[in-house]
Structure formats: structure tokens, C-alpha cells
Protein 1
Amino acid sequence: MATEIKPGRKRLTLGSVGADLLLVFWFVFSLFPIAWMVLLALKTDTEQTTTYFAFSPTFDNFGTVMSQRGTDLTSVDFAGALVSSVLNCGGAVLVSLLIGIPAAYAAGRWKYRGSEDLMFQMLSFRFAPELMVVVPLFVIYNQTGLFDTTYGMIWVLQLVTMPLVVWILRSYFQDLSAELEQAALLDGYTRRRAFVMVALPLVRPGIAAAALLAFIFAWNNYVFPLILTDSNATTVTVAVTKFLGGGGQAYYNLTAAAALIGALPPLLLALTIQRYLVRGLSFGAVKA
Amino acid sequence: MATLEITGVTTRYGKVVGVEDLDLSVGDGEFFVVLGPSGAGKTTTLKSVAGLVDIDAGRVAIAGRDLTGVEPYHRNVAMAFESYALYPQKTVFENLASPLRSGRTGSYSKADQERRIELVTTTLGINHLLQRFPRELSNGQRQRVALGRVLVRPADVYLLDEPLSHLDAKLRAAMRAELKQLGEESNTTALYVTHDYQEALDLGERIAVLRHGRLVQVGTPEQIWREPADTFVAKALGQPEINLLDAVVDDGSLVGAGAGGAVAVPVPAGLDLAAGERVRLGIRPRDIDRAGPDDRPAPGHLAVRGRVHLAERLGRLVELAVHVGDTELIMVASSDHAAEEGDLVDLHVDLADVHVFAAGAPGEDTPRLGGGVPRQRRPAEEPATGRAR
């Protein structure tokens, strides 16, 4: 860059200070529940209902949650729920990508009778409250043997992840000039190879974004695993709530610790693919 | 290296017509230019040949082979897109190697690929950019890479969509000369689309003029220039635009209206016009000569006197707007004997350079009267094209 824009020193006015204060207030306000959860996760059983900030923190709760040592909550297999959550959500996102990428490409490239209706139909799966479909699904799952299985969860989570993947990626494919693939066709490549060689690498940031969002949505889903699983394929969201009672005493500190652990996988995934997300932003700016 | 036959091709985008009932016959090795304003269907014509759009009627044949239903990658045509369509994630070298690596344009060893790429990039002046990405190039450089991706490979037909449009004026002239030479040497049939009439006249062995998706005229540059089929073609070629004057047939002459009888042209032989009939006269600015006040017009020349209303310098040339009576004639004069605004000037025009068109409302395009080139209808009627090789 020949010219560099230097950030000027911000003038301190009553308005700007006020705005900053407002932002700080909002920041504290919105982060407070998370901070409170962290504090709660570090408290002992006896202190779990206290509201003071000065206490001697302990990391035992995390160990307890992962192993259920020393509690009466022997029915909570949190580590197992963590594993099946990863399997369910990872599997759901993988299936959604495998089917959704070609679907999004087709939807973005070709118009045919009813193509818009089809896309809208897919989006409409997200309109209906999950509670509306979950009861009939429960009956079906019970009769078909899909109840409390990873396959069953991967299948039902498609309702959550597939529309996201298709809709996000369709707009990425639409933004991509069709002439790029046409050039590849004239270079002597088949349509399949033109897609793989030209279109697919260019929407990689979109795939990363769609996969991350789909994973988070699937991870946070509560109703489907609550109704459609028992102990084999139950997920973090359901397992966390078990610490709140059922066995007599509610363990708020364990619940908080479990929730913190449960929030880690999506966070790790986001950090891992952040590189592609950011590249996606800069890529759009200099698109040839 | 093949002939290209386009027969009755109609391509629509929904209800919008891209091209309609288009007939073109391009000879083996011919450099054929398609000229027209934007939206005339030029790109659609190319994409119909390439098989990138589905044609709704008619057929396209290369080397006598009907291409209906043939996939683009089996057509053995190469195309330079107006949008360049370079692969953003590949370097210039990889972009140029792409057609050589597909296996459908012939098989090339690594050394072959490099030699071909080296050759074509040297010609195009981009051989120092091979390791760059398209986003690191200027538009002119990208356009040359796009052209290179076509020229690097053999093909039956080259389809070139405004391949020089984004180059600056000097480079464009140089590349035009280069392309002309390439066209003559490679002997590959080429369909070249442009909206620049100079490019068309310079490069085309023949030119097709399109308007609103329809073919208006096909002919050699000489034919298109000398005998435009209608006022649209006449206006499309030449800058400044051709002068169009309304005229009335009177006593064997075509008398320009509003010029006080100053513009009077004998009715050309072979034109059957009744007295009182209205026509339009077309005179190209470059066909008007400035004469000295005492020069007598040569036989077969029209002499007009008018007053310079506006003089606009264009470097070596001066564009003059001359008022003759109530009408205005635009002419181009050399700046050596430039006229000042307000000067009286004498103008001579060779009668052979006066075009006669049917009368029409302002802005309406009307056909040439007599002596026109018949619109190409069927390939069979077309005189043998294709150069001796």
C-alpha cells in the first residue's frame, strides 16, 4: 500500500465517553451469566448456593462431572454423553455436507419448475417447533428401532443442519460466476470435474462457516435428544440437566461445570476453522 | 481447423430472446467477426456454439458434425470470456496449463506444456507473470491470460468474446496487430465478438452485424463499409457517425430537405424512385472533402457550401459541424487546413460515397435502397469462403 491511513486519536467528548461507558455496561451485563457460571463451577457443594465472590476455588467439580466420583448421581454418564454428542453432531454435519453441498450447488446453478418452492420447503423445516414433530417421531423411532441410537440422532438432526448448510452454501455458489465452470468445461473437463476442480475450492470458506453453524445448532439441540434418546445416545444438553436433581439434591456447581465442559467442543471447532472463516472474508474482497 | 455452420439458431433466456433465427457460415480458417452493440446477442452466439447455453431451435455444426446434444467438453472449441473467467485459486501458469492437462485437447508432456505456455505468454507479453494469481494482475493482464488460455491449445474453433476490450488504447492496437498475425498463422477458424467497429474492420475477413439478436448483414469489411444494408449498420461503423439527411426525389435528383436545395444528388442508376418520394441520404464524415473556394468539383462530385458551426480538435484531425441551410453535416478534416468556427467552407463529396436509404422517422433504422448486399440466408447461397491453404 502506497498510502497508509493512520487512525486519528479519538476525540474525548461527552458523547464518546458516554457511548463507551454504555458499551462497557452492556459488556458486563451480557457476560455476567457466563462469569457467574464460571464462579459457580469453582465452588464447593457447601458454597454452591452462596452469592459472594470471595471463596476458595476448587477444580474438583470438573473431575466429578467427568467421573461421577463421590456423588449419588451414578446414572449420569457425562463423559459418555460428551462422546455421543460429538458422534451425533459430527455425523449430522458430515451427512449434511455430503448431501447438502451438491444440493446447494444444484439449487444455486439451475432454475427449474418449483426449485424455489423446494428451497422454501427446506427452510420451512426450521419454522415448525420441534415439539410439534417430536411426538410422532418418538412413536416412529420406537417402532423402527431408531430410538436411542446414534443413527437415529444423526438422522433427526438433519432437520436442524441440512437447511442451514443448503441455504448458506447456495448463496456462496450463486455468488460464484458460472463462467468459471464454463471455462473448465471448454478446457475439456466434465461437469463433475469442473465442480470439484473449480467451484468446490472457491466455496471452502462457505463450507467452513456452514459446517460450524450447523455443528453449533446441532450441539445445542435439546428437544430431540431429550425425547428420542435414553442412555446410549444421550447428549450433553440432556446430561447437564441431570445434575439439577432427580436424585434428591440439586448440584448447581456440578451443572455449571458440566455446562462449561459442554461448551468446549464448539469453541474448539470454531478456533480450528477460524483460519478458513477469516480467509473467506478477505477472499470476497479481492475476488477476481 | 474446421468450418462452422450456424443454421436457424434461436436461443432464449426465459422470454428474453438472445439470438433469433441466426444463420452464419464460417469457412475453414476464417477469421469471422461478429459486431453489434451490447445486448445484440453476440455473447449468446458464442455460447450457443460452445454449448454453454441450450439452443431452442436450429443447429450448430463444426466440420460438418452436428453438435446438437454434444457436451461442451466434446466440442473441441476454446473460448475467451469477456469476464476472463480465470480460476482465482490457480496461478497464471496453472490457468494456462488447465486446458492442456484435461486430456481432451491432446496429451502433452510437462515439457510440451511449458513450451506451449512459454510461446503464447511471450507473444502476449505476460511471460513474467506466470507465478502470479489472477487477483494480482491488472485487468489488461487478466484479459491477456484469458486470451492465452485459448491460444495455448489447438481447437477446431476459437471463440473470442471482446478479448481486447479492457486493454488500454496503445496495447489494444499492438494486440490487434498481434491477433491479426496469429489468425493468419494459426489458420484456426475464429469467431470474434466485438462492439468496436475498427477492430471488426481491421481483423475480420468477414463481418456479421447483429442487432436485437438478429442478423442484419454479413459481408467483407469492404462490403459492410461500402454498402451498409441499412442505416443501423451505417451508423455502427465510423466515428463520428454517418450523416443522415432527409431528402425528396425531385426531377431526377434527390434533394436534401432543409438545405435550401444545396444538397442535390442525381438519382443513382438502378434506383426506381418516383418524383416526390422521400428517402434518406447517408454521407460519412470522412467522405466529405474540404475544397478551396476556387476548386471546381471533379465530375461526379457533389459541391456544397456551408458555415462551420463547431470545430472540435481530435489531435491530428478536426471534427467540423457545418451548417448547410438548416441541416448540419459532420465532417472530419485534417488540422493542417483547419477552419475556424464561423468560416464559410466548400465541401466536395464523391457521389459514389453517397448512400441512399428508405425514409423513416428519426431514430428508426431503414434499409438501403438498391445495390445492397443481400442478407445471408442459407449457407448454400454464400460464395465460397475460406482461404486457400
Protein 2
Amino acid sequence: MSTLSVGNEKWKEWLLNYSLYVILGVLIIAVVVMEPTFLSFDNLSKIMAQASTRGILALGVAGMIVYTGTDLSAGRILGCCAAISASLLQSVTYASRMYPGITEPLPLALPLLLAMAVGMMFCCLNAFGFAVLKMHPFIISLGTQLIAYGALCLYIDSQAGGAQPLASLDPRYISVVNGSFDIGFMKLPYLVVYLAICSAVMWVIWNKTTIGKNMFAIGGNPEAAAVSGVNVVRNIFQVYLIAGMLYGIAAFLEAGRVQSVTTATGLNYDLDAISGCVIGGVSFTGGVGTIPGVLVGVIILQVINYSLYYLGVNAYFQYIIKGLIIIMAVAIDVRKYISKK
Amino acid sequence: MPEDELRRKEAELDARERDVARREDAVRGGSLRHNLYERITLSKRAVDAIIAICALLIAAFTIAGVLYGS
């Protein structure tokens, strides 16, 4: 009898801790039954390509969550940086381009570096509020979100023809972002390769450098880290600046992927990035998280999005379901926190 | 060990402890700790119920979303 109850208890624990994976499994089974091509390599590479820009964004946000913080401005910063990339890389033959003065195509690295610089600038503002002014990251990043959105609207509205989407991008740009490697019968999108490179670099930073080690120390216990001689403010600035660089890269890739930038670009991307991190095990209690976890979280979220789309779930219902998934992921995280207490 | 030496070591230890306490106080002056779960008073059972309710709602809204159509 007692063995049976212990078995039941273990089973219940497993089911609750992995409930999101169970939901994902059920969704995938439902979709595969309805549409067997869902698990084709072509489709999976499309899902991965779509997850890549959000994945790069999530790699930046994850560092802030490790500090027990978050970044609500990531999506809007991405929008701003994407607008800069797209405006500078519009086709020189396009009559309504934002900068008619650019008559020769710019090197691709220039807009990328500019986007990264703008991302770093916004993240610097967040880091200053968090590390120096000791503001709650929710508040400072909410302010930055509005500033970035205002700047994006002004930038897009400053075009000669008024607020129109930044489109007709340079073909070189589109091919660098949307191209793919042909490996036998399958295609590996460049976007997936870019995500893999960013993830590898971030894994090294998190696990093999002082910045990463100090980040986890501060996230776990900022007082103890400071007393042990860690320069808390400098470390926070370093992590935020790295996040800003990642936002710039994600923005550059997202503009090229969608091939059009409007004031709506980046909307809710921050929530996707945060939920990806939480699903992937980056805890709001601080000091806990892994790069593979973030990647798995973002991919799970993307697969859920795709599955809902495949099942023909109404778009408005999809928002409700995504909200419930975030609440559930946080509840699972809280459960782990209570168990540890 | 002579008494003077003992006193000197004791004073050294006290000074070191005071220094650590001072640094701790300075850090606590504006803590960066924003643990979102610190004030949670829910029991584990209640959190389990929330997870279960979320799972049921996700299933219900998925079915409703399919029936409602795009």
C-alpha cells in the first residue's frame, strides 16, 4: 500500500514538474495525426529559423533574469535596432527609400554595428537604473520600453513619405539572412547557424569567464558577492552591454527575415523571450539558468506556437493560451522554489 | 603565547569582523535582490492546483480555439 502511494507521489511529482513538456507532447501528437508532414525536416528547419531571432533575444534577457531581474524593453529595442538596419539597407533602386542620399549599397557590417551600438545604448540605460539607482528592473525596463517605442515611431515617421513600412531591402542583406546551406537533401538555414554561434559564445561567457561566474554569484546573493570582492556594478553593466549587442544582432536578423519593419516590429518579443527563459529553467529567484535550457525553452515555445497554428486555433485564443503557458511556467518555477525552501 | 601577542591578534580579528560588517551594511543600503517569490505564502499543494488548472485551461482553450476557427 505504502509502496503504491510512494509510486503515485513520484508520478504526480514528475507530471507536475514536466507538465509543459507533456502539453507540448500532446500538441505535437495531435498535429502529427492531423498533418503528418509537421515533423518533416523542412518544417522543423522553418520552426528553428523562426525561433532563432527570439532565441538570440532570449540569450540576452536570460542574463538579466539570472540577476533576479528582467527586461520588458527587449522587444521595442529590437524594433528600434531593426528600423535602423532596414533603413540603411534599403535597395538603392527603391525610389521611396528613407535615405535617398545613399546611392551605393553600404557594407552589411555597418548597419549591424550601428544596431548593436543602439541596443547597447538602451541596455546601458537599463543597467544604470538597475545597478546604480537600484531601481526595480521591471520599472526601469518599462520606462526604456516606452522610450524605445517613441524613438521607433519618430524614426519611422521621419520618412519623406510619412510613416510607411521600411521595405524593399538590399538583396545581399536578404540572402545573408534568409539563405541556407544545402546539406544533401536538407537545407540548414543561416539563421539557425547564427543562433548556434551566438549560443556557443554565450555558453563560453556564462561558464568560462569571470563575467559569467560573477553574474551567477550576484544573482544568487548580491550581498555575499559584493563582500567577496565582486564589482557588482561593473558586472551588471558588462552583462547588460552583452545583452544589448545580442538585441542588435537579433534586430538585424529579424529585419532581414521579415523584410519589412513597422512600428509593430518587436511587439511582445520580450514576453516570448522571458517565457522561453522561464520554460527553459532560468529561475526568477536568481542565480539559476543554463544556455541549453534557454534554447530548449525558446524552441518549445515556438513549437507550441506552430502547433496551435497548424491545429487552426483562433489567433485571439492563441494569446490566451500563451498567457496561460507563461503562468504555468512561473508556477512550476515557484513549485521548485517552495520545495527548496 | 605572550599576553600582548594574544591581545594584538584579538584586536586584529575584531577589526576584520568590523570591516566585513561595514561592507555588508554598505551593500544592504541598496540591495539588488528583487526575488519575486520571496513573499509567496502559498503552500505547495496550492501551487500544484494552479499548475493543474492552467493545464486544464490550456486544453479547454485549445479545443475552443479550434472550434471557434480562424
